[in-house]
Amino acid sequence: MLLPVTPADIADLRTFLRDVDLTVAGLDAPTVRLWIERDTSGAVIGSTGFELSADAEHALIRSVGVAPGRRTAGAGSRLASFALDAAARAGAMRAWLFSRRSGPFWQKLGFVPADRDALAAALRDTHQVRLFVRTGQLHREVAWSRPLLRCPGMRDSVQSRTAEHLGAGSEPRRLGA
Ligand SMILES: CC(C)(COP(=O)(O)OP(=O)(O)OC[C@H]1O[C@@H](n2cnc3c(N)ncnc32)[C@H](O)[C@@H]1OP(=O)(O)O)[C@@H](O)C(=O)NCCC(=O)NCCS
């Protein structure tokens, strides 16, 4: 079941994201919205999330990860679609992300290569961009982008289907809010 991340999930989520080689910056920040999926034993098997720009026009999709033994069965697409839909419902017009290794996965979801400096400008206040600028990692990153649909009826129906499929029972909320 995909659930909003709570403070009690942060340590497990950090370990999971490190294991799948994703950034852990800003996990407990109120602007970063994250969801976590566990198996029946409580082990983390997936995560997804996004962070909006200050004007809420842009969303940085982040922390989309699937446990290695569960990949290539559609989980990653469902987790990514969930974050895209939640970002659109939050008002974002465009989604962006960094991905050096999983470009073909994102292309199947409608993403095209983007200018990393345009991403950094649109999402300058996000934790991931600030980290990558501060450490010089930005210039080693690969940026991707796609528009988000803003048809309310379509978004709602996609959201319902996605939430139903994932078993997500509650509205997304801001971590720590
Ligand atoms: C990227 C990731 C989330 C994909 O998860 P997944 O559950 O395997 O994804 P799906 O099963 O929904 O894959 C959808 C399609 O993308 C393809 N695909 C998935 N990962 C891919 C990759 N890294 N490179 C190329 N194609 C990939 C799948 O083969 C599948 O193709 P198909 O539709 O032709 O069958 C997973 O590999 C992962 O957690 N990677 C480590 C973290 C990461 O890089 N996250 C992305 C950056 S936020």
Descriptive account of the structure:
It is a single chain. The chain is of the alpha+beta class and 177 residues long. Helix 2 (75-89) runs antiparallel to helix 6. The chain has a seven-stranded mixed beta sheet, sandwiched between helices. It has a single domain, classed as Aminopeptidase. The two termini are 21 Å apart. Helix content is 34%, strand content 23%. Mean pLDDT is 88; it is low at 154-177. The chain has helices at residues 10-19, 75-89, 103-107, 116-122, 127-135, 152-166; strands at residues 2-4, 32-38, 44-52, 58-66, 94-98, 112-114, 143-147. It is globular and about 40 Å long. Bound molecules: coenzyme A. Coenzyme A binds at residues 20, 22, 62, 64-66, 71-77, 97, 99, 101-102, 104-105, 108.
Tell me the radius of gyration: 15 Å
Number of individual domains? 1
CATH architecture designation: 3-Layer(aba) Sandwich
**Number of strand elements:** 7
What best-fitting shape do the alpha-carbon axes yield?
Answer: globular
Strand order of the largest sheet: 1-2-3-4-5-7-6
Structural class: alpha+beta
Give the low-pLDDT segments: 154-177
CATH C-level label: Alpha Beta
Strand content: 15-25%
Distance between the termini: 21 Å
Record the SSE blueprint.
Elements: E1 2-4, H1 10-19, E2 32-38, E3 44-52, E4 58-66, H2 75-89, E5 94-98, H3 103-107, E6 112-114, H4 116-122, H5 127-135, E7 143-147, H6 152-166
Parallel strand pairs: 4-5
Antiparallel strand pairs: 1-2, 2-3, 3-4, 5-7, 6-7
Residues 20, 22, 62, 64-66, 71-77, 97, 99, 101-102, 104-105, 108 line the site of coenzyme A.
